[in-house]
Amino acid sequence: MNIIFLGPPGAGKGTQAQRICSALSIPQISTGDILRRAMKEGTETGLKAKKFIDAGQLVPDEVIIDIVKERLAQDDCGKGYILDGFPRTVPQAEALDTFAKIDCVIELSVDDQVLVNRLSGRRVCLKCGATYHVSMLGEKTTCDVCGEELIQREDDKAETVLNRLKVYHTQTAPLIGYYERKGLLRKVDGDQEVDAICGAILKTLGVRA
Ligand code: ADP
Ligand code: ADP
Ligand code: ZN
């Protein structure tokens, strides 16, 4: 199954994609993770993306479309995948339609006030992409999965967060209508416990938990 996770920053796309991907044994394709890795490695793409990401803006469509097109052509995507963070604009969605067949779009909805709290407390592992919240970390500063030191993303700092929410509402939210018109959109309440959301997504996908 080829699935898109759509929702504002902090909605839980990464958290849920990781779980659903392991339940379905399909790859999680997170464009944010791909870009952060490229920035860390200092590749040409990483350097190009950095100024947009740090400002809370989207990187240009042509940059991200090429990355996703190349990634979806790899063998491990043959049995399906979850796109987490792509598409984020209507031109990206239109481009995707030319090289992929999407079966389902899960929209995770969460109010802006809740999102601000989630994003300001988010800590991530740049090595494996795992996501945490300070409220569950206590004294711990390393990743449960791979042991790497956790960091706060530059773009999760307060001033950038509000900008990212604005970008979501103006540039990404139109995709809700785009996929609704195609009959692919399924809404899931993202303001519940992580396990409850995971169950709701699996049910929506017709998979038994
Ligand atoms: P996204 O990928 O949509 O930006 P994340 O999965 O990274 O969102 O989650 C953002 C933050 O909110 C993280 O700190 C994560 O631990 C936390 N979080 C995710 N899902 C929930 C939830 N259902 N309830 C409370 N906090 C959550
Ligand atoms: P979040 O988890 O908060 O939703 P991501 O990790 O998906 O954020 O993305 C972080 C940043 O990477 C975005 O603010 C944007 O600058 C860039 N980015 C990621 N995916 C895309 C995309 N599909 N189009 C343009 N920019 C993107
Ligand atoms: Zn890790």
Which key features would you list for this structure?
209 residues; alpha/beta; Rossmann fold; 10 helices; 7 strands; 50% helix; binds adenosine-5'-diphosphate; binds zinc ion
Would you mind describing this structure in some detail?
The protein has 209 residues and is of the alpha/beta class. It contains ten helices and seven strands. The strands form two sheets. It has a five-stranded parallel beta sheet, with helices on both faces. Strands 5-6 form a two-stranded antiparallel ribbon. A hairpin with a 6-residue loop joins strand 5 and strand 6 (131-133). The two termini are 16 Å apart. Bound molecules: adenosine-5'-diphosphate (2 copies) and zinc ion.
SSE layout and pairings?
Elements: E1 2-6, H1 13-24, E2 28-30, H2 31-41, H3 44-55, H4 61-72, E3 81-84, H5 90-99, E4 104-109, H6 112-120, E5 122-124, E6 131-133, H7 134-137, H8 158-172, H9 174-181, E7 185-189, H10 194-204
Parallel strand pairs: 1-3, 1-4, 2-3, 4-7
Antiparallel strand pairs: 5-6
Helix pairs in contact: 1-10, 2-3, 4-5, 6-8
Bound molecules: adenosine-5'-diphosphate (2 copies) and zinc ion.
- Oligomer kind: single chain
Catalogue the ligands.
adenosine-5'-diphosphate, zinc ion
The tally of strands reads 7
Quick one: CATH superfamily?
A: P-loop containing nucleotide triphosphate hydrolases
Biggest sheet layout: 5 strands, parallel
Task: Quickly name the level 1 CATH class.
Answer: Alpha Beta
**Distance, first to last CA:** 16 Å
Q: SS-based structural class?
A: alpha/beta
- DSSP helix count? 10
How much beta, percentage-wise? 5-15%
What is the overall pLDDT average? 96
For the record, the count of structural domains works out to 1
- Which series of helices and strands comes N to C? EHEHHHEHEHEEHHHEH
- CATH topology label: Rossmann fold
The gyration radius over C-alpha positions equals: 16 Å
Low-confidence stretches: none
Q: Examine the secondary-structure arrangement and name the CATH architecture.
A: 3-Layer(aba) Sandwich
Strand order in space, largest sheet: 2-3-1-4-7
Fraction in helix: 40-55%
Q: What does the overall shape look like?
A: globular
